[in-house]
Design brief:
This protein has 110 residues and is an alpha+beta fold. It has one domain (11-107): Sulfate adenylyltransferase (Roll), CATH 3.10.400.10. It is built from three helices and four strands. The protein has helices spanning 18-25, 67-72, 78-88; strands at 31-34, 44-47, 50-61, 99-107. A four-stranded antiparallel beta sheet has the order 1-4-3-2. Strand 2 and strand 3 (50-61) form a beta hairpin.
């Protein structure tokens, strides 16, 4: 996919929860799923003095997520990821057909 929609939020809002920031800095978290686009491939963001670069942006159905995807999000399993996401977003339901944007990223090396 070469054409992306306009951003719905600033890239500095991509990873904000303290535990997820730490997991990202430790190299455990390498993806963030969002309802909208927060950053495009090649764009960078900083977390506590570390710079990360978005390496990929793709659409995915929630129902297509795997345990490996949940681990890339910083969680040990898909069940735990789903449970925490539903607790973090009051009133949200897990819709297998819902589409999310998967932002993949890594530490930027010059």
């Amino acid at each position: 996919m070469d054409a992306y929609p306009e951003k719905t939020c600033s890239i500095d809002r991509l990873v904000t929860h303290a535990k997820l920031v730490e997991a990202t800095k430790a190299g455990i978290k390498t993806q963030q799923r969002r309802d909208g686009v927060y950053g495009w491939p090649g764009e960078t963001f900083d977390l506590d003095g570390m710079t990360f670069v978005v390496t990929d942006l793709q659409r995915q159905r929630l129902g297509d997520m795997t345990d490996a995807d949940a681990r890339a999000e910083g969680y040990p399993s898909l069940d735990m990821y789903r449970d925490i996401i539903l607790k973090m977003h009051a009133g949200m339901t897990w819709n297998e057909d819902a589409l999310v944007w998967v932002h993949s990223f890594t530490v930027k090396t010059d």
